[in-house]
């Protein structure tokens, strides 16, 4: 069966639209009768007040509660504090980066925007389609065949598909059933060929069939509780509702052409341990990050992890709920932190697996070398920093004496060490803002019972 777009799939009938209008009317009536309209109005007023506040002041706004990371679910195996300002729906225009005012999100390439292969492409791929179906129907026969004229006689499907022009590979994939595509993607070698050589429209078509076939699992991950919601109307968004969206004119390294520490903007996922380590690495050796990520001709990216040598290829589309919910490309649309995060989520079995971790684990993953040091002297830390070692420090759980909601050290959080001089430590927050003032080494030791993480 060819996976072609049918006219019947392009829109709803008049009856369906009428039903929707009736449903909206009923909901509006319930809101008015119950008196909930005033509560909703108050919520919106408070939200607009906070969005419109300038200079960091919101004294004229209604008092609201903020996200308290100390009350978040405990993660015994590492730090996890997400970015409390990571609500993707907040911006100056009241709309997200794709102009979606209601923040509901949308797929990066719905059926109406995906370009299907031409009839000529389908015809050109017909022989290969028949061969691959016959191969999967009789795999044992092809594995033992010595006939050099057989398409799969002296090779395997991955090598055969890699020799196909992209337009024919796309047509072949569009011609397959969903279960056939799933079978092919279940083969690691075939998966790499498809992910790195098929067109992005074809990969997005596959995602429309089943998102889990080509994208990292987002289910179970907390997006966050927006700080502007009042105590009696808290809301938490989950990755279950996320879609994958393509950002506007995003680039891997940005205008600088190389990764920088300022590119990192942690989102709602508690992977500060990973992004702080990535920041430590890029601060000391940008080339190491550049060597990890390769942009493919089809617009996907292949990330090579040093701990295992494993290569993971991902699309450029990012989890979104009206805007990016995890590592954010930011105003400069720099992709590498989000691509690194996405590839590790794919490798580990989903974004939820990145929620909480340790700095030495992250450094081991990124460089193949990482260790945990609990006891160290000021001279030790200064020597390691002067020697160019990437260093990550994490703070204790709960609100320590250095924790203040509006600045300085955040509890249960990881930071990049950027400099150690005259007994003072300079730290960089992976949120991309709220960087603490230099901290005396002795106080940092008190607030960081987990010690530090660095390369050997």
UniProtKB/TrEMBL annotation:
Q: Where is this region: Disordered?
A: 55-124
Q: One GO MF term, please? A: calcium-dependent cysteine-type endopeptidase activity
- Gene Ontology terms: biological process: proteolysis
Q: Which residues cross the membrane?
A: 20-44
Tell me which PROSITE patterns the record gives. Answer: CALPAIN_CAT, THIOL_PROTEASE_CYS
Q: Does the entry feature the keyword Cell membrane, yes or no?
A: no
- SMART domains to which the protein is assigned, alphabetical: CysPc (SM00230)
Q: Which residues form the active site?
A: 272, 413, 429
Q: Which UniProt keywords apply?
A: Hydrolase, Membrane, Protease, Thiol protease, Transmembrane, Transmembrane helix
Biased composition range(s): Basic and acidic residues? 87-100
A single Gene Ontology CC term: cytoplasm
Q: Which InterPro entries match?
A: Calpain_cysteine_protease, Papain-like_cys_pep_sf, Pept_cys_AS, Peptidase_C2_calpain_cat
Its name, as the record gives it, is Flp pilus assembly pilin Flp
Q: Which organism is the protein's source? A: Lipingzhangella halophila
């Amino acid at each position: 069966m060819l996976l072609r777009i049918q006219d019947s799939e392009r829109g709803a009938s008049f009856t369906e639209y009428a039903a929707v209008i009736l449903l909206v009317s009923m909901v509006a009536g319930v809101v008015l009768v119950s008196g909930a309209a005033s509560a909703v109005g108050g919520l919106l007023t408070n939200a607009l007040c906070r969005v419109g506040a300038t200079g960091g002041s919101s004294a004229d706004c209604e008092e609201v509660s903020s996200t308290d990371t100390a009350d978040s679910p405990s993660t015994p195996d590492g730090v996890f504090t997400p970015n409390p300002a990571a609500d993707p729906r907040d911006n100056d225009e009241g709309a997200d980066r794709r102009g979606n005012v209601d923040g509901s999100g949308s797929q990066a390439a719905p059926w109406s925007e995906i370009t299907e292969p031409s009839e000529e492409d389908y015809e050109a791929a017909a022989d290969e389609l028949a061969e691959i179906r016959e191969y999967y129907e009789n795999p044992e026969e092809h594995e033992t065949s010595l006939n050099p004229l057989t398409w799969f006689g002296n090779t395997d499907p991955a090598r055969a598909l890699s020799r196909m022009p992209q337009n024919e590979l796309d047509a072949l994939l569009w011609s397959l059933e969903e279960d056939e595509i799933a079978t092919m993607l279940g083969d690691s070698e075939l998966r790499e060929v498809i992910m790195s050589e098929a067109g992005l429209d074809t990969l997005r078509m596959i995602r429309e069939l089943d998102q889990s076939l080509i994208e990292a699992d987002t289910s179970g991950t907390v997006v966050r509780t927006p700080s502007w919601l009042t105590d009696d109307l808290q809301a938490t968004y989950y990755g279950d509702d996320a879609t994958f969206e393509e950002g506007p004119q995003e680039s891997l390294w940005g205008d600088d052409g190389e990764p920088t520490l300022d590119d990192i903007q942690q989102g709602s996922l508690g992977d500060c341990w990973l992004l702080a380590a990535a920041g430590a690495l890029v601060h000391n050796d940008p080339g190491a990050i550049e060597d990890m990520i390769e942009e493919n001709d089809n617009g996907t990216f292949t990330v090579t992890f040093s701990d295992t040598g494993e290569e993971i290829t991902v699309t450029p589309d990012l989890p979104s709920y009206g805007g990016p919910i995890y590592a954010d490309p930011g105003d400069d649309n720099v992709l590498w932190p989000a691509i690194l995060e996405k590839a590790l989520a794919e490798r580990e079995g989903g974004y939820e697996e990145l929620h909480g971790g340790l700095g030495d684990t992250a450094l081991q993953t990124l460089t193949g070398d990482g260790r945990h040091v609990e006891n160290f002297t000021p001279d030790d830390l200064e020597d390691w920093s002067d020697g160019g070692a990437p260093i990550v420090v994490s703070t204790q759980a709960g609100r320590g004496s250095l924790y203040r909601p509006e600045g300085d050290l955040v509890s249960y959080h990881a930071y990049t060490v950027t400099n150690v001089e005259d007994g003072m430590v300079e730290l960089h927050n992976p949120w991309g803002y709220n960087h603490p003032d230099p901290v005396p080494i002795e106080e940092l030791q008190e607030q960081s019972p987990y010690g530090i993480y660095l390369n050997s």
